[in-house]
Design a protein that fits this description.
By secondary structure, the chain is mostly helical. The protein contains 12 helices and 2 strands. It is globular, with a radius of gyration of 19 Å.
Length: 255
């Protein structure tokens, strides 16, 4: 995502243009306050074919040199696929947060890394401290805002997301809690977590730190557009299930 040498002006312009489009797609998160996961899936499918067919013809200036040669951008195609996967497996507010991280944080990390980044990470010379720090802070803030904005639309979550979260809660109590019971209590427990904005902010900063660390690793075969948002969403869901189980097994808090 970030290069060791300072890129020329032309490349900076191309990358800035690309990241503005990347970040601007976050505006489609706004309707998630009222529409369910099917809306996200429809947007993802539309965006996939848009990036495959329209982007190479009308927005060539946003393509990197190798992508122009191939006629498509792998990152741009992975982008909507990531949204589709999150829409299916995560509760809607967490999916919205992952989408915000995908759109805003990855874009900020690239922009700040290329424009201001000078000191590179010891374990990944293609990324800088300022880029990773930008990812962490923006992921924490925009992920938190996305959760707060869509928290009232838990009913818009996919059915499979309930099963997935139930399995996580089921595993956290070492298979002593029936999976049917875990699934039945998901909405209540998640709603309890979503009622506390301060807890959400702390959880978002923790999840963002974990996602930033994994995103900074030199894993060549994994696209950042898939790794970063999925890790953030999974981490924050794990934090929610931990807090929810604490409420369940603590009679004083649970009252």
């Amino acid at each position: 995502m970030e290069k060791i040498s300072q890129p020329p002006i032309e490349e900076l312009f191309q990358e800035s243009y690309r990241q503005v489009l990347h970040i601007g797609f976050a505006l489609f998160i706004i309707p998630l306050r009222w529409f369910g996961f099917w809306y996200a899936i429809e947007i993802a499918i539309f965006a996939f074919f848009w990036n495959l067919i329209i982007m190479p013809r009308w927005f060539k200036d946003s393509f990197r040199p190798l992508e122009k040669q191939k006629g498509y951008s792998t990152g741009m195609l992975v982008y909507p696929i990531s949204i589709l996967v999150m829409a299916v497996i995560f509760p809607l507010p967490i999916m919205a947060a992952g989408w915000a991280v995908l759109s805003v944080s990855d874009g900020f990390a690239t922009l700040f890394g290329k424009l201001l980044g000078k000191r590179h990470l010891p374990w990944n010379k293609n990324k800088t401290w300022i880029g990773t720090f930008s990812f962490w802070i923006s992921a924490a803030i925009f992920g938190w805002l996305a959760i707060m904005w869509t928290a009232k639309n838990m009913d818009g979550s996919s059915i499979f997301s309930h099963q997935f979260t139930g399995w996580l809660m089921y595993a956290r109590v070492y298979f002593l809690w029936p999976i049917s019971e875990a699934t039945a209590h998901i909405e209540f427990f998640l709603s309890y977590s979503l009622q506390d904005p301060y807890f959400l902010l702390v959880a978002s900063f923790i999840a963002a730190a974990g996602a930033a660390m994994i995103e900074s690793l030199p894993i060549a075969k994994l696209d950042d557009n898939l790794v970063a948002p999925l890790c953030f969403s999974l981490f924050i869901l794990l934090i929610f299930t931990y807090e929810s189980l604490y409420v369940l097994y603590n009679p004083i808090v649970g009252q």
